[in-house]
Specification:
The chain has one domain: Cytochrome-c3 Hydrogenase, chain B (Orthogonal Bundle), CATH 1.10.645.10. Helices cover about 50% and strands about 15% of the residues. It is built from 16 helices and eight strands. The two termini are about 40 Å apart.
Length: about 375
């Protein structure tokens, strides 16, 4: 009874704007100090894994973009890669470069949205407009290429649906040329800002041990001192032919996670530039026409594809069984980041909660699959 009189239980969400979706956090507070945190998920559950069992392989393809609607290309690649390996199908090299280009542009767009909304969570509104201004250029490119600003359904079994016209390549080149100066502007506004540093430095520290125990991946893991990036450690598509660096930090705090993602913006631009050079000079096909998606009837088999997505490793496991998948299982980075919150927020001030949570870059469709 004494403890009940000392502490107070409050709900953050599931309609809170800074939980980036319908996440509910049940907090126990002792004054301004968080004594316990219980994440409650499931408000957005759509049964995406179960849907696969009643749809053909082609019918399920447009759905996977919605698992992470800010990084749909990564999900599309993981699913297509599973089917292509089960069919033992070769992908044209040009199509591989186009896939890499699309995914890296998608990574930049995702990080820009994260940065803008993260700064808004901390009370800074100007960076949101700058980030959305630059992200809009990528969305225009995607719309011109695929017909959609989000949920593209552009990758298909055996390659990609359309080649990239020269006009769109010119737009991408112009974006790559302009973007480094824009990122420097972000850094000038944010990196040494005393309010930003006071709210992020030494806040929400994820130790290397905790990151590994909770299966944290992506930028959140690299910010804790583990330099694991599947594009380097286990290259797929054409990443082993591209020159780029990965960034990691030892702090493990919210500030380190910001720094790692800022570096990834530069790194992705470098990759996109190399892809443009190859695509311009290549006259190869973009699709292996031996694949007939409508008529797919895959014999029994199982394959797991892993991709370094914008929020960490995304893996797709397809267990094939005839005209429809027997089972499809998704593993996403956001789900594991949410599991870390009960340990990460204990003994933090309630005012630091959104800075810590925002730095993890969680998106709820990835959690409620």
């Amino acid at each position: 009874m004494t403890n009940l009189l000392k502490t107070m239980e409050i709900n953050v969400g599931p309609q809170h704007p800074s939980t980036h979706g319908v996440l509910r956090l049940v907090l126990e507070l002792d004054g301004e100090i968080i004594k316990s945190c219980k994440p409650v998920v499931g408000y957005l559950h759509r049964g995406i894994e179960k849907m696969a069992e009643s749809r053909s392989y082609l019918q399920y393809l447009p759905i996977v973009d919605r698992i992470d609607y800010l990084g749909g290309f990564f999900n599309s690649y993981a699913y297509c890669d599973c089917i292509e390996n089960l069919l033992n199908v070769e992908i044209p090299v040009k199509a591989q470069y186009i896939r890499v280009l699309c995914m890296e542009l998608n990574r930049i767009a995702s990080h820009l949205l994260w940065l803008g909304t993260f700064m808004l969570d901390l009370g800074a509104s100007s960076p949101l407009f700058y980030c959305f201004r630059d992200r809009e250029r990528i969305l225009h490119i995607f719309e011109a290429l695929t017909g959609q600003r989000m949920m593209y359904n552009y990758f298909t079994f055996g390659g990609v649906r359309f080649d990239i016209p020269n006009e769109i390549l010119e737009d991408i080149s112009s974006f790559v040329e302009d973007m480094p100066e824009c990122i420097k502007d972000y850094e000038n506004i944010i990196t040494t800002n005393p309010i930003f540093t006071s709210r992020c430095v030494n806040k929400g520290i994820i130790t290397k041990r905790n990151a590994l125990q909770y299966s944290i991946t992506g930028a959140n893991l690299r910010a804790s001192g583990v330099g694991l990036d599947f594009r380097k450690s286990c290259p797929y598509l054409t990443y082993d032919n591209l020159e780029f660096d990965i960034s990691y930090a030892d702090g493990g705090d919210a500030y380190s996670r910001y720094k790692v993602r800022i570096f990834e913006l530069y790194s992705s631009l470098k990759i996109v530039e190399q892809c443009i050079d190859f695509i311009r000079s290549s006259s190869e096909p973009i699709l292996n026409k031996s694949v007939k998606p409508v008529m797919l009837n895959i014999p029994e088999g199982e394959y797991t594809s892993i991709v370094e997505a914008s929020r960490g490793l995304t893996s797709c496991t397809v267990k094939a069984g005839g005209k429809t998948p027997y089972r499809v299982k998704w593993r996403t980075g956001s789900y594991y980041a949410v599991q870390l919150l009960p340990e990460l927020l204990v003994n933090c001030e309630v005012a630091d909660m959104m800075a810590i949570f925002g730095s993890l870059d969680v998106i709820l469709p990835e959690v409620d699959k």
